[in-house]
Amino acid sequence: MLFSYSSSIITNFFSKTLIRPHSSHPVLLCTMSLNSHAFAGNPITSRTAKSSDPFSPQSAFQTLKTLLSTQSHDPISPDFKILPFRKGRPLTGSNQPNWHLGWLSLGDFRAFLEKSEVGLSENSLVYLGCKYEDDVVYWAIDVSEASELVSEFGDRQFCFVELRTLMVATDWADSKAMGELAIAGHARALLEWHNAARFCGFCGGKMVPMEAGRRKQCSNELCKKRIYPRVDPVVIMLVIDKENDRVLLSRQSRFVPRMWSCLAGFIEPGESLEEAVRRETWEEAGIEVGEVVYHSSQPWPVGPASMPCQLMVGFFAYAKSLEINVDKKELEDAKWHSREDVKKALTFAEYKKAQETAASKVEQMCKGVEKGQSLSADFNVESGELAPMFVPGPFAIAHHLISSWANQVVMNGTLSNL
Ligand SMILES: [Zn+2]
């Protein structure tokens, strides 16, 4: 069955639509609910407790330290749940149609480690957040060194799955599943940052985790430099022509055939977001941009390993010129696409089918039937055989920039989303 990325989903995504006053362009300003984008809307990180609160990083860490030193198995309040990662992949289980994270109790986790003769120190656990209503504090841990755990967990139908595969396998209409994906993304970003930030950039001393892994500090008493988890901002823009009839989409050589997407680029030091949008569009496509309008943003913890979490900041960028001059070092091609062609691309791409296929592959992996660990390449292809082109799936902010433009209509001189 072909899946059409229907207008009802778009309406749900955008909770408020405003016409921008004094704008030279018919612009939609959209505010989005927190759960809109993949990796946003994490259900367990929103609270910052006072340090005396038992759910706070400081108090929970002290409790953890006591539990590990006394080897106590008594029930505690709040309860602790632990999510193991191996090489950036979270432990995952599956109850079709949805995958779920492989949370373990502290007791179970210790039992696994004892079997594998791996020691556990409080400094190897990273605080993720808490849920007061469930009386639980959540932790993540990197167990990449303990390869024996793979078969131990495999016996219980859990396996470590690539985050990109989980991203494609997540049903974006299911807020619980989207919440699980956001937790996995946050945890992976923190653990990858811990792995990359082992030594002090000032004196070369060893960096040690502080505040239950929420920051790090140089162990050299003369230095004590503090560092915090890294976020790399990226602008991503849908460039729209003066008439609001066509958009500029581009192809990179790494894209699968027929896929087109928005321009994007890193922000340079000393540059505003708007300046970055204009500079990148000029450098990559030779187009002059005038007005720049914010759309929404998306955490992106599945980029290169050197950047544990990018923040994609999305804009509509209104072109002042039309002639394209592609920088072939950056892009394979860039072209103006009509609204009709973009709508066709959105209608015929088989996003739902790709998601369901990925979800069933994850289940096969958890059952031990499928051994492959990196399915992301296959499932970046939202095949769309009937369409001459397609755009990235609903897990990417590019999709929402493109679909919200494609589905906007002018009615009696005012704009609204269909
Ligand atoms: Zn230092």
From TrEMBL:
<dbReference type="InterPro" id="IPR020476">
    <property type="entry name" value="Nudix_hydrolase"/>
</dbReference>
<dbReference type="InterPro" id="IPR015797">
    <property type="entry name" value="NUDIX_hydrolase-like_dom_sf"/>
</dbReference>
<dbReference type="InterPro" id="IPR050241">
    <property type="entry name" value="NAD-cap_RNA_hydrolase_NudC"/>
</dbReference>
<comment type="similarity">
    <text>Belongs to the Nudix hydrolase family. NudC subfamily.</text>
</comment>
<keyword id="KW-0520">NAD</keyword>
<dbReference type="Pfam" id="PF09296">
    <property type="entry name" value="NUDIX-like"/>
</dbReference>
<feature type="domain" description="Nudix hydrolase">
    <location>
        <begin position="229"/>
        <end position="359"/>
    </location>
</feature>
<dbReference type="Pfam" id="PF09297">
    <property type="entry name" value="Zn_ribbon_NUD"/>
</dbReference>
<keyword id="KW-0460">Magnesium</keyword>
<dbReference type="Pfam" id="PF00293">
    <property type="entry name" value="NUDIX"/>
</dbReference>
<dbReference type="GO" id="GO:0016787">
    <property type="term" value="F:hydrolase activity"/>
</dbReference>
<dbReference type="GO" id="GO:0046872">
    <property type="term" value="F:metal ion binding"/>
</dbReference>
<dbReference type="InterPro" id="IPR015376">
    <property type="entry name" value="Znr_NADH_PPase"/>
</dbReference>
<dbReference type="InterPro" id="IPR015375">
    <property type="entry name" value="NADH_PPase-like_N"/>
</dbReference>
<keyword id="KW-0378">Hydrolase</keyword>
<dbReference type="InterPro" id="IPR049734">
    <property type="entry name" value="NudC-like_C"/>
</dbReference>
<protein>
    <recommendedName>
        <fullName>NAD(+) diphosphatase</fullName>
        <ecNumber>3.6.1.22</ecNumber>
    </recommendedName>
</protein>
<dbReference type="InterPro" id="IPR000086">
    <property type="entry name" value="NUDIX_hydrolase_dom"/>
</dbReference>
<dbReference type="InterPro" id="IPR020084">
    <property type="entry name" value="NUDIX_hydrolase_CS"/>
</dbReference>
<keyword id="KW-0479">Metal-binding</keyword>
